[in-house]
Amino acid sequence: MTDSARDDLITFYDTHPINEDEILAKAAASGKNLDALTQPDLQNLDQDHYGGTRVTDIIAEAAGIQREHHVLDVCSGMGGPARWLAYHRHCRVTGIDLTLSRVQSARRLTHRVKLQNLVDFVHGDATAMPLASSRYDVVISQESWLHVPNKTALIAECTRVLKPTGTLAFTDVVVKAGFDAIAEARVTADIHTSNLATAAQYRSLLESNGCEVQTEEDLSGEWRAVLLDRLQMYRSLRDTTEAKFGAEHFRTYDDGYSHFVNCFVEGKLGGVRMTARKAATPLAL
To answer: Rounded distance, CA 194 to CA 188, Å?
Structure first.
């Protein structure tokens, strides 16, 4: 990723409609005491991925997450899934994210709901993680890798930090038929995607890094409906988005996100959920 692309991606998330201020404003508007928030108070407000807590549970079940596990959430954003897993599965969770403002917000929200003994966040690049090898029982991610240009380094790092026989479970946006150079250029500019992969490419990268793919689900139909709903949800945040970032920012974001959603409606983009198991011994060189 070039320095310019990295800066643009960070700005994209620094100015995202779902942010700490918006989450807390919604909690306050619903009558919650911000000085005594609990995880149930936040769980329907802080899940910045497709499908909310329901799909985090699906990933947790697929990965077999247990109380004794240490889970790594790669590209963890505001930390909603990490807190949900720690609260409901009583496991330890670490999140890592490239955007410092998201890491800082995730830490503050975690402290508010008193889960800091189970959940922590690291500022870092998913393609060069400042984390020890063979440390985590499970690695998860949800709809984040579309922003990571070097998929080869990404999958290599995810498998490096995973314990032998550990599980990698993720969802991501994938390329389908008809996603031409014009559509790709616009999505790249508007949503700051980079080097979008096909499901087959992810499968190949996992296998070449010593992982056995156990499940693969096409989420394209489900995500079309989810994304149309999310477009309306973002539009419902117009007042708070304009108040924080300005009217022009809202218009630009809405235009870009509308095109992104339309790529799903037209079948040019889709979604995949995969789980893979790391081998007990490293690949022979």
So the answer is: 6
CATH number at residue 83: 3.40.50.150
Between helix 247-265 and helix 181-191 the angle, nearest 10°, is 140
Pairing of strands 269-278, 162-175: antiparallel
- Cα(123)–Cα(8) distance, integer angstroms: 17
Sheet containing strand 119-123, edge to edge, reads 119-123, 92-97, 70-74, 136-142, 162-175, 269-278, 211-218
| pLDDT for the residue numbered 284 | 54
For residue 111, what are the domain limits?
Answer: 3-173+193-219+272-277
pTM: 0.94
Q: How far apart are CA 101 and CA 204, in angstroms?
A: 33
Identify the bridge partners of residue 271 per DSSP, sorted by sequence position. 173
The tokens for 109 are: 């929200």
Question: What percent of the chain clears pLDDT 90, i.e. is strictly above it?
Answer: 92
- The pLDDT value recorded for residue 158 is 98
Domains: count for the chain: 1
Beta carbons of 75 and 126 less than 8 angstroms apart? yes
Q: Name, in order, each residue with C-beta under 8 angstroms of 59's C-beta and a sequence gap of 6 or more.
A: 140, 142, 169, 170, 171, 273
Inter-CA distances, 180 with 175, 186, 224, 260, Å? 10, 10, 19, 13
